[in-house]
Structures are given as C-alpha cells and as structure tokens.
Amino acid sequence: MLDEILKSDTDKIPKWLMRTVKQAGKGINRFKMIEEGDEVLLAISGGKDSLVLALSLSIRLKWLPVKYKLKALHINWREYPIPATLLSQIKDYFDKLEIPFESLTADMLPLSIKNRFNCYLCARNRKRILFEYAEKHNITKIAAGHHMDDIAETTLINICLRGNFSTMMPVQDFFKGKLKLIRPLCLVREPQIKLTAERLELPVYNTICPYKETNLRLKMKPVLKQLYSLDKNVYQHVFDAPWKINSEYLPDKL
Q1: What is the DSSP pairing of strand 39-44 with strand 69-77?
Q2: Rounded Cα distance, 83 and 92, in Å
Q3: Which of 13, 126, 139, 252 is 20 to 30 Å from the Cα of 113, by its Cα?
Q4: Is 51 contained in some domain?
Q5: What is the tens place of the pLDDT at every residue in 108-139?
Q6: Whole-angstrom Cα distance, residue 142 to residue 130?
Q7: C-alpha to C-alpha distance for 247 and 226, rounded to whole angstroms
Q8: Which residues contact 2 (CB under 8 A, 6 or more apart)?
Q9: Domain count, the chain
Q10: Is the pTM of this model over 0.85?
Q11: 102 located within any domain
Q12: Which CATH number characterizes residue 156's domain?
C-alpha cells in the first residue's frame, strides 16, 4: 500500500492518511516551524511517531509551494542495538521516502553520567548527540515526533508531580535561537498516528528502555484516558491551556 500511495497523486491518498498529513501541516503553519529553504533533521527512533512524522513531511513536499530538505538521523544505542534486519527495513523505508538516512551508534550510558542514569538524562544525552550532529552539518532545525498526547501528558506531569505550569513547546529555541527543536505532530492525536503506522505496516521498532516501567509519561496515560471519558476534547484543552491564560485568576507576583 505504501508504494502505491507514494506514487499516486495527492487526491488519491486515503482520507485517514491525509487527515494525519493535514493535521501536521496545521501545526507547522500555526507555529511557523518550517520555512523556504530550510534543512530539517528528523530525529528517528524507529518508533511509530518518528516514522509517521517522516512520511507526513515527505508527502507535504509534493504539493507545497514551500520547498525544504529533509535528513534523517537514527541513534542506535550501543547497549541496546536495533536488530540488523529491522534497521535494514527502516533504511529501505527512508529510501522510498527519498530522505537521506543515517544510523549513528552511540552510548546510552556515557561515562559523564556514571550511575545517575534516568529518563531525563537519557533524553538529554540524545539531544546532545542530535545537537552536535546538526551543528556539524549546519542544520538549524531538528524535528521530533512528539504528538498532542505526549504534550498533554508532559503538561500534567509538570503540574501534578512537579508543581509548575510548563509544557513541551511545539517550537523550542536553544542556544539563543541558533537551533530550533520543532514538533510537527503537535496537533495530531496518538491514536491517529497508531492507525497510520498499522495500516501502512511501517517497520516500527520500539527502543528497549531499562526504565520503561518507571516512565512518568506512561503512568500519566491512564489518567488522561479517565479524563477523556468525561470530555473527549481533554487532550486539546490541555494542549491549548498555556495559550489561554486567564491572568485575573492568577497571582500578580510569585
């Protein structure tokens, strides 16, 4: 099915896939993520989110008046390497998308972290590798596959478990704006991404994580599902909240 879709005109792309692509486009346009002539580095884990992200941006290039370049970087953790056969399938997938793909082997547990390893330090280590690669190749934008569910979960974690009102921004500046981390799937729900990956039989690989059972975002999923039973717009509401601040009901000073 994927081969047929990539060769077909946009008006023949299935509605369920076009919904994902258009929602990604809305996020990109709303937050002005990608501009003419940009080169965007795709942070590829091999999971459904990053593979659907790559597909969405690739399809958008077919009809957009704005042209940009895509490059994919997969970080292959030395401690938990991806099976060679599956890595080959992911490479073939990016060949079909006509996106240059590179897999970089790195240490999940660098010596600098020592025995303090946790989810936060793992994510920071991954960002460091992506940032260094982007700088080396003169790339100023990195696209991650975080979706609306991820952002809603992070927002509730910060409020409920850390006591602060902060979120995962659709566009996050680093190094005084020299580098931007963008999240084009910020308006796409996770079930839609899962549907897309399953129907297209994408070569999804779930990275082995030694701390999966203690991951706070996974623990927040059932909380949001309960809230969803009360209001089916709860993910959208939590996502929109940082842009709908009612200052009359907040303190003037900290």
Answers
A1: parallel
A2: 14
A3: 139
A4: yes
A5: 876 666 666 677 778 888 999 999 999 999 99
A6: 8
A7: 28
A8: 96, 200, 201, 202
A9: 1
A10: yes
A11: yes
A12: 3.40.50.620
